[in-house]
């Protein structure tokens, strides 16, 4: 653990004991995601730090996490509110081959959902592509950002944020968000949540690397029982589309049955209606 990195004046610290102990206990299940763990009290965004490390040659599997983010970001240009002692804010540095890259966010959605359940017993579902929810309210989200490293190789920074404790969100977010502890009505071990999510992702990532994509797609489908079969709408090419979410295809696109046949949704947001 630890590193000599300094990021915009912030220096890494020893992780708090609950995090360090959980990672140590799970070390044999974390694969490369247990070797280089870098913890900050506060950064702009853990994805920023991981991207900087990627560009300067850091190893695949490097994990950056912070107690708080001052500029956490979500998908589609949204803000990810990241107060201290409320959530887990984590970014993984991946250097995936092309056949793996297209499914890392699907793998991550399944892994975060599985990890939360393994650590706390809370049953969560996934909503395409990778929101993790409980009864329609979001408990975790995933942001994958691709880039090019100094040696010309491609990398992906895979960031996930989990709402562990209830926090004071602005009203528009509070309506759509929930937290693990809020759902369970008791405290949970956030270190265990982190280590179980990393262990689950390590398993799925190895499957992808070994060309065992169907296993990862099935893991996502098992978590999507409340998502698939539902009526959905989405925006594409300047118009609103509607249909019934049916399945994932082998590249992670959502297949939606519409009046015009089955359409592939490959990006953006699908809303439940
Ligand atoms: C979303 O659902 O919109 C994705 C949210 C991703 C949030 C995480 S928190 C750790 C990492 N750092 C960020 O700035 N974003 C991701």
Describe this protein's structure.
With 273 residues, this protein is an alpha+beta fold. It has two domains: 17-223, Bira Bifunctional Protein, Domain 2 (BirA Bifunctional Protein, domain 2), CATH 3.30.930.10; 231-272, SH3 type barrels (Roll), CATH 2.30.30. The chain is 30% helix and 29% strand. The strands form two sheets. Strands 1-2-3-7-6-5-4 form a seven-stranded mixed β-sheet, with helices on both faces. A hairpin with a 5-residue loop joins strand 9 (239-248) and strand 10 (254-258). The termini are far apart. Residues 45-47, 69, 72-75, 78, 80, 89-91, 131, 141-143, 159-161 line the site of biotin.
What are the salient characteristics of this protein?
binds biotin; seven-stranded mixed beta sheet; 273 residues; globular; BirA Bifunctional Protein, domain 2; alpha+beta; single chain; 2 domains; SH3 type barrels
Q: What's the structural domain tally?
A: 2
Name of the CATH superfamily of the largest domain: Bira Bifunctional Protein, Domain 2
CATH topology of the largest domain: BirA Bifunctional Protein, domain 2
User: Which structural class do the helices and strands define?
Assistant: alpha+beta
Q: Write down the overall mean pLDDT.
A: 94
Computed Rg: 18 Å
Given this structure, which CATH class of the largest domain is correct? Alpha Beta
Helix share bin:
25-40%
CATH architecture group name of the largest domain = 2-Layer Sandwich
Task: Give the topology string: H per helix, E per strand.
Answer: HEHEEHHEEEEHHHHEEEEE
The span between the termini is 45 Å
Strand content: 25-35%
Query: Major sheet: order of its strands?
Result: 1-2-3-7-6-5-4
Heterogens: biotin
E-strand count: 12
Q: Quick one: biggest sheet?
A: 7 strands, mixed
């Amino acid at each position: 653990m630890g590193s000599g990195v300094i990021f915009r004046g912030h220096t890494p610290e020893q992780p708090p004991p609950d995090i360090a102990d959980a990672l140590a206990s799970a070390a044999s299940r974390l694969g490369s995601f247990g070797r280089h763990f870098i913890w900050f009290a506060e950064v702009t965004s853990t994805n920023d730090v991981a991207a900087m490390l990627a560009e300067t040659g850091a190893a695949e599997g490097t994990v950056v996490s912070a107690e708080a983010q001052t500029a956490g970001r979500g998908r589609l240009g949204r803000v990810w509110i990241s107060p201290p002692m409320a959530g887990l804010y984590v970014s993984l540095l991946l250097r995936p081959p092309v056949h793996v890259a297209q499914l890392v966010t699907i793998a991550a959605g399944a892994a975060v959902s599985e990890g939360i359940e393994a650590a706390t017993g809370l049953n969560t579902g996934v909503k395409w592509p990778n929101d993790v929810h409980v009864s329609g309210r979001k408990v975790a989200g995933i942001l994958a950002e691709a880039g090019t490293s100094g040696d010309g190789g491609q990398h992906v920074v895979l960031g996930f944020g989990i709402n562990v404790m209830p926090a004071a969100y602005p009203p528009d977010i509070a309506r759509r968000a929930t937290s693990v502890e809020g759902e369970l009505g008791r405290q949970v071990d956030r270190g265990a949540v982190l280590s179980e999510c990393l262990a689950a992702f390590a398993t799925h990532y190895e499957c992808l690397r070994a060309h065992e994509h169907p296993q990862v797609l099935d893991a996502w489908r098992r978590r999507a029982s409340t998502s698939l079969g539902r009526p959905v709408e989405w925006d594409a090419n300047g118009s609103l589309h509607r249909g019934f979410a049916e399945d994932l295809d082998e590249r992670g696109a959502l297949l939606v049955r519409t009046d015009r046949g089955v359409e592939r949704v490959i990006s953006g947001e699908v809303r439940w209606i």
